[in-house]
DNA sequence: CTGAAGTTTGAATCAGACG
DNA sequence: CCGTCTGATTCAAACTTCA
């Protein structure tokens, strides 16, 4: 089958994904990174609260008539990727809840062996403008070996060392791709609607490939995979149908310099300040619903509700909002304003937050969260 | 079909999941929470349709056969859950990468409408002992409405208020179930291998059910769903096959006390508050016909008409329509766009609506809250 | 030039009542 | 079932404007 197919790395194959993959030889690729269409199927336009329109993904390449058609497409390109992978090769997929369950099932059906699912937590996701769902603040990656027997690459020590000597977990925190990294077209608009951050590919390639490995991206887009692969001294192959994307990717990758063998960049981990919301104290049982809270001088008595709000007669809201309301002020830091009673004395609920941080592992020491106010 | 099936809540149905679900009436349940078996030991536990054992996992056909069997089981209990759900009902599933892709695909295939996938990030996950994978530090939840048209319950304001006035995101941080909350058997060993933390169910039930709702858990285990449902004033039904688990769950739930009705009051939503049409302000004499209204910066001047419409030269219509027209936008909330003048200053007409609610006796508890502490 | 203030934007299956 | 109309709703970061 593959007798006259030769692997030429560091180039983009222009054309249909499955057709182009057929031109690659069997067992020639170490890793596949695939960011396939998400099949979003947006129905109507979405307005922001200020009545401006959200520039959603409505490109033709993301349109599929049904799950059946999407599954058919998925099976076709997955099968080609599997053929092209070396026996010890592996694959990364990325998707959202719209498509990732189809991807994962198809992977398993074809004999891939899932090693982890990994969650990319977005520092700065787009909010949910209508207030009808949770903020969609993550995307899901699947890491799978070609089959159960594959001796896949995993640079455990590198990842651990770059993670303050803690095992790298399955939840990763990165900002979305914006700023200077985000490619723009001639008109100054985003060149690609779904450009992935280089930090994501950086961790993947450092963690699951070795220098010199061949990385295939069958949905190359504007070439994030190629750019990071080149920088990290990996070889790469991209497949992309859209010639505008191809042009942008080629120009982008041409500017990238390969790092010297010695200089192994450490992951710039953008840690956000650990935050404990008030509701967590209720959910964790540290404050019972019905428990009273007071201001410092006991002039106001409020009651904790099961939904994580606080109430006085005639008003209910967050600890901050209610603190502002009872004082007739515009704003209030509820953490220092409200107090719980213990041993006949009042303590700011901020103290509880410190203990919750410990329970949630957001501070150094590990201990258990005991209820501090007994049920009545 | 369901003519002689009666819904008896707050009890455990002992027996096979699908068989027991068949005894529940159609459209009787508000929410399903399901924590199905994870399919971890495919090769040893699962039988082929002809009851021969699937032995050996080396063979791709066996793996496929096993997934087939798991999918058949999944479709069977999901279909019963869908039948039992009210038209506006919803479902939560929880799983790991071993089974969650099968669950999500089956949900979509049966017509459920996925609203979010949610990631439970574990504070204290089990480390990966062999250092060959990422620490499996999360599990995945799927929240889905019965179908696309379902008007599902979502207590957006409660979740936001309990999260320091920020929208609740799709990534949740909770410790695994341990300490006193973890049920032990007579030998002091954990009574159930995968007991879920009550905090997880607390957030789910607060966020997506109302007091009095019926919550069904078809894989009840040691009854976390029932315990939290009872505490939060929701009704519950469990299905469990293992009589040891049933006994542990019954003892556990018997000890739980339901919170007082007042503790369960949720943050009221502006959406559910009674509506005051603009015309009522004119009828009540709060705005006289001919009165001028302005946008925030006085760039536009409109005039109130006796019929409750608003007019600028050349255009007339509702406060919303006219606000959109003068801005050249597709939509506009007239209540916040238009302002009336009083004491030389502009105030949004939304303020008048609040006063109209009081005048019309439509105001509930969330009325004009007076400061309880005098300004200093 | 600097900092404050305002604007733009990101893989989105994003409403509900009423006639 | 479908069209019409009211009116509820956003977070973090980058970028632009202006004092």
TrEMBL record, chains A, B:
PROSITE patterns: N6_MTASE. It catalyses: a 2'-deoxyadenosine in DNA + S-adenosyl-L-methionine = an N(6)-methyl-2'-deoxyadenosine in DNA + S-adenosyl-L-homocysteine + H(+). Residues 261-354 form the RAMA domain. Gene3D superfamilies: Vaccinia Virus protein VP39. InterPro entries: DNA_methylase_N4/N6, DNA_methylase_N6_adenine_CS, RAMA, RM_Methyltransferase, SAM-dependent_MTases_sf. The keyword Transferase applies. GO terms for biological process: DNA replication; methylation. Its EC number is 2.1.1.-. The keyword S-adenosyl-L-methionine applies. One of its GO terms (molecular function) is DNA binding. Residues 29-251 form the DNA methylase N-4/N-6 domain. GO terms for cellular component: cytoplasm. Pfam families: N6_N4_Mtase, RAMA. Keywords: DNA replication, DNA-binding, Methyltransferase, S-adenosyl-L-methionine, Transferase. Belongs to the N(4)/N(6)-methyltransferase family. This is Methyltransferase. It comes from Hyphomicrobium nitrativorans NL23.
């Amino acid at each position: 089958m593959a007798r006259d197919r030769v692997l030429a790395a560091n180039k983009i194959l222009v054309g249909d994904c499955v057709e182009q993959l057929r031109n690659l030889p069997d067992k020639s690729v170490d890793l596949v990174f695939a960011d396939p269409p998400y099949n979003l199927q947006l129905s109507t336009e979405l307005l922001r609260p200020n009545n401006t329109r959200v520039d959603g993904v409505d490109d033709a390449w993301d349109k599929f008539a049904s799950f059946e058609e999407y599954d058919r497409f998925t099976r076709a390109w997955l099968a080609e990727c599997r053929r092209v992978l070396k026996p010890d090769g592996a694959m990364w997929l990325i998707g959202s809840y719209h498509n990732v369950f189809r991807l994962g099932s198809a992977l398993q059906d074809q004999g891939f062996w899932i090693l982890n699912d990994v969650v990319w937590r977005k520092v700065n996701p787009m909010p949910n403008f209508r207030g009808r769902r949770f903020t969609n603040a993550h995307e899901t990656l699947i890491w799978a070996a070609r089959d159960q027997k594959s001796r896949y690459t995993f640079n455990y020590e590198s990842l651990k060392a770059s993670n303050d000597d803690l095992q790298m977990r399955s939840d990763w925190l990165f900002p979305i791709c914006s700023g200077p990294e985000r490619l723009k077209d001639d008109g100054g608009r985003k060149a690609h609607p779904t450009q992935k951050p280089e930090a994501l590919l950086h961790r993947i390639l450092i963690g699951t490939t070795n220098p010199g490995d061949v990385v295939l991206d069958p949905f190359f887009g504007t070439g994030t995979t190629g750019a990071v692969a080149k920088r990290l001294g990996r070889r790469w192959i991209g497949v992309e149908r859209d010639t505008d994307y191809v042009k942008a990717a080629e120009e982008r990758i041409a500017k990238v310099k390969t790092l010297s063998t010695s200089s192994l960049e450490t992951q710039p981990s953008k840690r956000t300040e650990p935050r404990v919301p008030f509701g967590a104290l209720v959910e964790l049982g540290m404050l019972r619903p019905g428990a009273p809270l007071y201001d410092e001088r006991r002039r106001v008595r409020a009651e904790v509700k099961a939904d994580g709000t606080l109430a006085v007669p005639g008003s209910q809201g967050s600890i901050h909002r209610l603190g502002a309301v009872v004082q007739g002020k515009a704003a209030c830091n509820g953490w220092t304003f409200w107090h719980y009673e213990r041993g006949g004395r009042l303590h700011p609920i901020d103290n509880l937050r410190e203990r919750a941080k410990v329970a949630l592992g957001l501070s150094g020491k590990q201990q258990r969260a005991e209820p501090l106010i007994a049920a009545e």
